[in-house]
Design goal:
The complex is a heterodimer.
Chain A (H helix, E strand, L loop, with lengths): L1 E10 L2 E11 L4 E5 L6 H8 L7 E6 L2 E2 L5 H6 L2 E3 L12 H7 L9 H6 L2 H20 L15 H14 L4 E5 L7 H18 L2 E5 L3 H7 L2 E6 L2 E6 L1 H5 L2 H8 L3
Parallel strand pairs in A: 3-8, 3-9, 6-7, 7-8
Antiparallel strand pairs in A: 1-2, 1-4, 4-5, 9-10
Helix pairs in contact in A: 3-6, 5-6
Chain B lengths: L1 H34 L6 H21 L5 H28 L8 H22 L4 E2 L7 E4 L7 E4 H23 L1 H11 L1 H6 L4 H27 L1 E2 L3 H16 L4 H21 L5 H15 L14
Antiparallel strand pairs in B: 1-4, 2-3
Helix pairs in contact in B: 1-5, 1-6, 1-8, 1-9, 1-10, 2-3, 2-4, 2-8, 2-9, 3-8, 5-6, 5-8, 6-8, 9-10, 9-11, 10-11
The chains are: A alpha/beta, B mainly alpha.
GO molecular function, one term (chain A): ATP hydrolysis activity
Keywords (chain A): Amino-acid transport, ATP-binding, Nucleotide-binding, Transport
Family (chain A): Belongs to the ABC transporter superfamily.
């Protein structure tokens, strides 16, 4: 469903990403790994429309999306998280999930003012969906707390719930386990697998936590210094000499 | 007793002016909250609102319509429509093309827009001040005869009621409605809101339209209160409202309301106990003090640099 072909991104004299190709099929978890500064997040930023790539092609369900504005891309069914939590901290937990469904309740201001039956029904649907996902990530008790006051692990889960209420086809997670303790990481691990198994969402993942990556990925792409280094199934990557060298340094 | 009545008189005068400052200040603070720029043309939007209301009132008078609620309603609607379209157009023409550039660029653009609008009204309506008919006359009086009497004019009461209605409506809109929720999300993290599929351009336009509508209401009210308008009408009021917004904490809507009221009361107390000439001195001294000792304003949250 997602196909990135020979993506390049140049910032002035720096070639941050050079000829990287990634593809994600339906019902698949694909990871991008690589040492710090390898250009993983830059690839993400190009795909999600934050950057306009300087070369290459990005296809989502067969349509070219490179250089399109981010909200258009997200409306096509692709949604992402960031390395650091980016919740609307001053809004309540449930409001975070409602606002993410803004475009689903696509009515005009007048319908909102008059509270037409159609408008009410849609509002109710978004509230139900929010409640469902809060329950799913174990935050239902926290629904009316300010999102900024949640514990870090809870904020991470809320971010994923916020992505899921938009009913994406592809979920892009940028280091979702960063800052989580081992128990929380395991929970996250199960959550991500369940998103794939139970909700048929494909996942594109950037992660440093090797146990997480190796455990849940169907395929892994390794990039180093902006260039593709290897790609394949977890066991192939684990035994790849180039990958071991890039991670451990050459002796 | 006399002193107390005098004090209350000043307080009421201050709250009257202050509540209209607050209405204008909301426009500054909402725009700042969402795109981090000061819309210096906002005072002109307010002035245009006052002119439009005056034109509507004059028009109705020539048609022989004098029923007060109808006249007020028509004037209000005309002012709100014209000012809102102006606010929308100003954002499209002067701010959207330069959004995301260096902070100074939209600022210069805003000042340019302000000068343009002011001079446009100069040309179209002349530079003399034009009398605003006193539609609402009369007042309550309290206190013994032949001494100082507390007087609250019906105009002041009208101002209180209308500003209260506007502020309540705005608060409900922001906290309850779908668009209000989106406004809050955009003001917290524009990039993330956009990624979640919110059309941020529409929300930004909505912010300008709402701010301009409130300014138009203030324009009608203050036009009637002062009894005249001129093309520079918006300049000083805009500056005062901006001060109120900073005082309360720019970006915060309750802050703008509080800042407006404090500023209004401070001004009228100065006029009442010191001298009218000092009221601007006090207003802007307050601004300087707040910037020195609490730069985030009374209700503003300190900006924490995220790492």
């Amino acid at each position: 469903m997602l196909e990135v072909k020979n993506l390049s991104m140049r910032f002035g004299g720096l070639l941050a990403v050079d000829q990287v190709s990634v593809d994600v099929q339906e019902h698949e978890i694909v990871s991008i790994i690589g040492p710090n500064g390898a250009g993983k997040t830059t690839v993400f930023n190009c795909i999600s429309g934050f950057y306009k790539p300087t070369g290459g092609q990005i296809l989502f369900e067969g349509k070219e999306i490179q250089g399109k504005p981010d909200y258009r891309i997200s409306r096509m069914g692709m949604v992402r998280t960031f390395q650091h939590v980016r919740l609307f901290g001053n809004m309540t937990v449930v409001e975070n999930l409602l606002v993410a469904q803004h475009r689903h309740v696509n009515t005009n201001l007048l319908a909102g003012l008059l509270k037409t039956p159609d408008y009410r029904a849609r509002e109710k649907r978004s509230l139900d969906r929010a409640r469902y996902w809060l329950n799913r990530v174990g935050l239902l008790d926290m629904a009316n707390r300010e999102a900024g006051n949640l514990a870090y692990g809870q904020q991470r889960r809320l971010e994923i719930a916020r992505c899921m209420v938009t009913e994406p086809k592809l979920l892009m997670l940028d280091e979702p386990a960063a800052g989580l303790n081992p128990a929380e990481t395991r929970e996250l691990d199960q959550l991500i697998v369940s998103l794939k198994e139970d909700y048929h969402v494909s996942v594109l993942l950037i992660e440093h936590d090797m146990s997480l990556v190796m455990g849940i990925s169907d395929r892994i792409n390794v990039i180093s210094q902006g260039r593709p280094l290897a790609s394949g199934k977890p066991e192939e990557i684990r035994q790849n000499d180039d990958v071991i060298k890039a991670y451990l340094g050459e002796a | 007793m006399q002193d107390l009545l005098y004090f209350f008189q000043q307080l009421i005068n201050g709250l009257t002016i202050g509540s209209t400052y607050a209405l204008i200040a909301i426009g500054y603070t909402m725009v700042y909250g969402i795109i981090g720029m000061i819309n210096f043309a906002h005072g002109e939007i307010y002035m245009i609102g006052a002119y439009t209301a005056l034109i509507a009132i004059t028009g109705l008078a020539t048609l022989g319509i004098a029923w007060l609620p109808l006249v007020l309603l028509v004037a209000l609607i005309c002012a709100v429509i014209v000012s809102s379209s102006m606010g929308w157009a100003v954002e499209r023409v002067a701010y959207r093309p330069v959004r995301g550039r260096h902070r100074l660029i939209p600022l210069i653009s805003a000042i340019g827009m302000s000068i343009f609008l002011q001079n446009y009204v100069h040309l179209a309506q002349g530079s003399r001040n034009i009398g605003f008919p006193a539609l609402i006359e009369g007042s309550f009086r309290m206190g013994p005869e032949n001494t100082f009497q507390l007087s609250i004019s019906y105009m002041q009461i009208t101002i209180f009621i209308i500003t209260l209605v506007c502020m309540t409506a705005l608060s409900l809109f922001i906290s309850r409605s779908r668009t209000g929720r989106a406004c809050r999300a955009v003001s917290q993290d524009l990039g993330m809101a956009s990624l979640l599929g919110i059309d941020t351009n529409r929300i930004i336009s909505a912010t300008f339209v709402i701010g301009a509508a409130l300014a138009a209401v203030a324009g009608l009210l203050l036009g009637m209160y002062y009894g005249s308008v001129d093309p520079l009408f918006g300049f000083i009021a805009g500056l005062k409202a901006f001060t109120a917004a900073v005082l309360g904490g720019i970006g915060s809507i309750p802050g703008a309301m509080l800042g407006g009221l404090i500023l209004g009361v401070a001004e009228s107390m100065t006029s009442g106990y010191l001298s009218g000439e000092y009221k601007d001195v006090v207003a802007f001294s307050l601004l300087i003090l707040i910037l020195l000792f609490k730069p985030t304003g009374l209700l503003g949250k300190p900006e924490v640099e995220k790492i």
